[in-house]
Specification:
Blueprint lengths: L10 H25 L3 H4 L4 E7 L4 E6 L7 H13 L9 E4 L2 H4 L5 E10 L2 E11 L14 H4 L6 E5 L2 E2 L1 H8 L5 H29 L1 H24 L4 E9 L10 E10 L2 E5 L15 H12 L1
Antiparallel strand pairs: 1-2, 1-5, 3-4, 3-6, 4-5, 6-7, 8-9, 9-10
Helix pairs in contact: 1-7, 1-8, 7-8
């Protein structure tokens, strides 16, 4: 629905929608932690759950690790770009672990369930979590993506509600503990379904128009607050530099970390062009993870 056709947001409804989103992702988080098989999820919190609008923009995140707050949105947008809205159907479950999409290593599998209302996509419920094993070598030291394990492109784990058995069996044959892997997979799907339930309930309670109008207002409020926080910083250029001892492969060869922050009014530019080039070890990062770290640190 075009924004110009929506009614003015009701402040009470806005707060109800805002808190409903937070409650939804907290429940998604709890379900994942209580049903997952491996302690990397329920103890180390190496996961993230989230709800996203039809464009893939973040509505609410149930944080496990802060580094995932941006990569999830990029992953959802990549799925939309790959399948197209016409190629995504009710009860589909979209899966990938592509490192160049998610910004994470291959152990992080990301499942997304589209949420429909009257035949149109209105949101996505998504879960990324760390599996103990996705194939690959066991000593923890890899020098290329192929050593990490099984790469899963954009696939549908379910299509129109029907399990893609070939995908499931392909995954099971490439992991050392398929029973645990499937347990974590089902835990992730359970978390996603909780998000679907909450969005559908929210729309049934308030109506789609009121929900979308409230989401627009929440986005505007968030931007206004961020700009106010930036405005409190004196204008200028700020620079900092540090380094890691090495990348774990080229021992003794420092890896520089340089950042320049330019503040002007209510705008902030974070310049990472002075960072180290790609290294042989496992410290490389893509734009999504970099944006997540900047957002978490600055805002």
């Amino acid at each position: 629905m075009k924004q110009s056709k929506r009614r003015k947001a009701d402040p009470v409804t806005v707060e109800l929608v805002r808190n409903s989103l937070l409650a939804a992702t907290e429940e998604m988080k709890s379900v994942l932690m209580r049903t997952s098989y491996n302690m990397i999820i329920y103890e180390a919190l190496d996961f993230t759950v989230g709800l996203f609008d039809r464009r893939g923009d973040t509505l609410s995140i149930g944080l496990g690790l802060p580094m995932f707050i941006r990569g999830m949105a990029d992953t959802v947008k990549s799925k939309i770009a790959y399948w197209g809205y016409d190629g995504i159907h009710p009860d589909d479950i979209l899966l990938t672990n592509d490192a160049y999409t998610t910004g994470a290593h291959l152990n992080h599998l990301t499942f997304s369930i589209p949420i429909f209302h009257k035949g149109e996509i209105v949101a996505f419920s998504t879960c990324m979590a760390h599996w103990q094993d996705i194939g690959g070598i066991l000593n923890g030291m890899t020098f290329d993506i192929y050593s990490e394990g099984l790469q899963i492109p954009h696939v549908k784990y379910h299509e129109r509600g029907k399990l893609n058995v070939d995908v499931r069996e392909f995954i099971k044959m490439n992991v050392r503990r398929p029973d645990r892997a499937m347990g974590d997979l089902e835990a992730q799907l359970s978390a996603c379904r909780v998000g679907v339930k909450h969005i559908e309930s929210m729309i049934a309670r308030h109506g789609l128009d009121a929900v979308l109008t409230s989401l627009d207002d929440i986005m505007r409020q968030s931007e206004t607050e961020a700009r106010l926080q930036i405005s409190a910083i004196p204008d200028g250029t700020y620079e900092a530099e540090s380094q890691m001892d090495d990348d774990g492969v080229d021992i003794g060869r420092p890896v520089p970390i340089r950042v320049k922050v330019i503040v002007k009014g209510d705008r902030m530019t974070v310049d990472l062009s002075g960072m180290s080039p790609q290294v042989k070890g496992f410290y490389n990062s893509n734009a999504g993870v970099a944006c997540a770290q900047v957002a978490f640190k600055c805002l």
